[in-house]
Every structure is written in C-alpha cells, then in structure tokens.
Amino acid sequence: MAEPVTAAPAPSVAPVDERLPLRRLVPLACQHLLAGVAAPVSSVLLIATTLKLPAGRTASLLSATLILCGVGALLQSLGVRALRAGARLPFLMLPGGAAVAIFLQIAQEYGPATASGSVLVAAAFLLCVLPFYGRLVRLFPPLVMGTTVVLIGINMIKVTAPMVVAGPGLAFATLGIVAVLFLVLRGVWRQMAVLLGLAGGTALAALTGSAPHVASGDAFALPVLLPYGTPHIDLLAAVPLLVFALASLAEATGQTVLNSEAVGRTPDPGRDVPRIARADALVSLGSGLFGASLMVTSAENIGIVQLTRVRSRFVTAAAGALLVVCGLCTPLSRLLAAIPAPVVGAAGLVIYAVIAVMGFGMLARTDLAHGSDGIVVALALVVGLLPIVAPEMYTDLPSWARTLFGSGVAAGAIAAVALGAAFRLLGPRLTRPAAPGAHPAAGNR
Fold first, then answer.
1. Are 99 and 148 in contact (CB under 8 A)?
2. What predicted TM-score, i.e. pTM, was given to this entire model?
3. CA distance 315 to 91
4. Scanning 83, 111, 141, 415, which has its CA 20 to 30 A from the CA of 61?
C-alpha cells in the first residue's frame, strides 16, 4: 500500500532576511529613522554654523546629507553583489561625529574646498587598502582608537565653544534642556535627546525674539553639486581623515560582530567588514561631491533591533528610503537651517564631549596600570594636545610639517600608532601582579 505523499516543508527564512507586510514595515522603519536622524541634522548644523553658510546652502547641504544617509542604509541593508558592497545587515549609515570634527578642522585651516577634497582622498584611499584589511586593523587597537577619539572630542570642544558667544544664556538653557531630556526620556526618544534639545532651544529663541527667519522656496529640490567649488586635493591636509578611515576598519569590525549577533547570524568580519567599508567609501565619494563629511556605517539602531526583536534588514532599507524622501523635502531642510548658532553650539558641545567620553571608554579596555600602555597613551596625548592648547609653537615650522604636526588629531593618532607598535616590538615584556589566588605565572603580557 503506497504511503501518502506529504508536501515538503517550506524553507525557513533567516530572521535577517524576513520580509514584513507594509503595515508593520512602515512604523518599524520610522523608529529606525528617529534613531538615526539626529546625527545628520546635528552634523550639518555644526558644519553650516562653523563655516557661516547661508540658509539656502545649509538647507541644500542637509538635503544632500539625508539623501546620502538613505542611500547608505539601502546599500548596507540590501547589498550590491556586483560591487561587493553592503553587508546585508540592518545597518544605518550616518556622518561620523569624529569625521565631522576632522572635516571642520580641515575646513577652518585650509578652506571647505580642501575639506571636500580630503573626503574624496580618504574615500578613495579606503577603497585601495581594503585588500589589506587583516593587516591594517591590527594597527588600531583600543589604545590607538581611544587616544584618537579623545583628542577629536577635545579639539572640537575648543572649535565649537566660540559659537555660544553670541548668546551664552540661550546656549546654557539648551544644555539644560538636553540634560533634562536625557534624564526623563527612555528608549528611542532618549536617543533623540540632542535633536529635541535643538528644538527646545529654538523654541526658546523664538519666545525671546532671537530666532532667525525661515527662507522660502520650492517644496522639493535636488541638493547642489560642488557647493564649495572644485574640491582641492592636499594630501598632507587629508592626513587626519586618512587616519580616521583606517581606524574605521577596526570600528567596523566590532560593529559587524555586534550586529551579526543581534540578528542571529554567525559573525564573519573577514567577509562583511570589507563590504561595509566599501559601501562607506562609495557613499563618501558622493559626500565629497556634495560638501558633506565622510560617511560611516553606524550601529546606533541596534538597540531598536534588540528592543523590538525584529531583525529584518528590509526595515532599515525602508528607513533609508524614508531618509531619501526627507532629503528631497526642502521645507524641512530650510526649517532646520534656521536654528540659531548658540543653540547649535550647545548641542555641539554635548556631542563632542560624548565623543571624548567614548574615547575614555575605549581606553578603559586597555591595561593602563601595568606595562607600557599607560606611557604610550601619555606620550600620544602630549603630542596631540600641544597643538590644541599651544598652537603658536608650530608657526615657525615649514608648511608641510605645520600641516602634519600642527593638527592635534593627526599628530596624536600617528604618535599612538608608532609608539604602540614600537613598544610592542621593542619594549620589555612585563608581568602584571597576580590576582589573589591566581597562579603566579598568570598575566604575562
């Protein structure tokens, strides 16, 4: 007697590849949008206010940045096999806070056209070094990355502080609003505390009669290509961004492991990190052409993935599409471009102080109490802080040396890499004190 024929079980779909119905996709995508929109808005406002861009150009720059963020999220979430770009993970792509700080430093010293050229150079450089990813990432342990990030945060606090001079009362009120929001908000809303603080500070400025006029214009428009003119290529000026591009490979490694584990996929940095970095570099080429800073893939939205337990990469792809729509909607860009400088300055101080704290967190992963790590960090901070606190001591150097060593971020990062490598290869192998009850031989470095 023949056995009944049973249908073959449907192939299971990995959670990261799950396709959701539209009624679930849109609200989930909006949550990711809210988690990521603060970074492009705050970074553009800092660039525009520091470089004193007119309202129209600020709106155009914000439109370009939002569109680039959306394209980056689509590229990372969906991937393009022909380009070997995109990890096909639920990532967002945002302007890196450290990258914005370096962009502004170059723009202030050499002009915005050179800053745009440096973005193009860094993106092209990143594409060229990806085949050597495994060797390069070893040069940027937490010791090097932490020192560099601390210097970036301190340097940009110094740059941003003068923005509050026009209205210190308004700036301190904005800082208070941001602090209260961080205290009372939870979840995705807490991630937007800085953006909501910008809104609160602007509302306060309107009540006191100091809010600027919002420009009028068309409802939809494309961003302006080459807003600072033809990008100027200066390899020495681009050194800080080149260092950051290399360091981003190490950061992408950690984010890949974190994101893969969050969605239940076995981490494979050797396969995924080059794809992530290639997508970053391709979108950053667009950033250089539209006047924005270097773009980096971000894991800011991983908390939402863990909170909602929805791991589908198509949710972040939909969030990317929404970012593109927001970028094309120019009334939103013009409204954001009207935020007063002291309010932006206050938000910038918070952002860059948080960047410095992140650097201290990276340094906490190293053993600064024993061995050579502590002296490496100390010497690198000396090299990096001197151009920040006493820039006049570099005025008599040749232009190439002033460019290389007069930048605290570049000088400190290079010193950290060189000193870290030298102490690992040539320094003495020290022994940490054994913990109570531990074997006497334990703890060799």
1. no
2. 0.71
3. 10
4. 83
Give the helix/strand (H/E) hosting 200.
helix 193-207
Distance, in Å, from the CA atom of 327 to the CA atom of 61, rounded to the nearest integer, reads 9
Contact yes or no for 113/232 (Cβ under 8 A): yes
Phi, psi of 220, rounded to the nearest 5 degrees = -130, 140
CA atoms within 13 A on the CB side of 402: 12
pLDDT for residue 363 is more than 80: yes
For 329, which DSSP code?
Answer: B
Residue 62 has pLDDT above 50, yes or no: yes
Neighbours of 400 (CB within 10 A): 10
Mention every residue, 6+ apart, whose C-beta is less than 8 A from residue 289.
Answer: 116, 120, 225, 226, 231
178-189 pLDDT per residue, tens? 899 889 987 667
Distance between the two ends of the chain, CA-based, in angstroms? Answer: 72
**DSSP state, 444?**
B
Q: How confident is the model at residue 320 (pLDDT cuts 50, 70, 90)?
A: very high
Residue 321 CA to its chain's centroid (Å): 20
Stretch (H or E) spanning 297: strand 295-298
Report the C-alpha dihedral over residues 217, 218, 221, 226, rounded to 10 degrees. -20
Q: What percent of the chain has pLDDT over 90?
A: 21
User: Two tokens at 347?
Assistant: 């938000």
* 295 strand-pairing partners: 95
Side-chain-facing half-sphere of 217: CA atoms under 13 Å: 19
Task: Name the least confident of 40-54, 110-124, 406-420.
Answer: 406-420
CB-CB contact of 71 with 324 (8 Å): yes
What local confidence, expressed as pLDDT, does residue 414 receive?
Answer: 80
Quick check: 413 and 240 in contact, CB under 8 A?
A: yes
Scan for tokens 């704290």, then name that residue.
Answer: 357
Residue 281 and residue 352: Cα distance in Å, rounded?
A: 24
Task: Specify the residue for token string 């603080």.
Answer: 197
On the question of pLDDT at 172 being above 80, the answer is: yes
Rounded to 5 degrees, φ, ψ at 265 are: -110, 140
Tokens of 87: 């990890």
What is the C-alpha separation between 308 and 419, in angstroms, rounded?
Answer: 44
- CA dist 231 and 240 (Å) reads 17
Cα separation of 52 and 38, whole Å?
Answer: 21
Bridge pairing between strands 92-95 and 295-298: antiparallel
pLDDT at 65 over 90: yes
Q: Which of 97, 53, 60 is nearest to 290 (CA)?
A: 60
**pLDDT, tens digit, 9 for 90 and up, residues 209-239:** 765 655 555 556 678 899 999 999 999 889 8
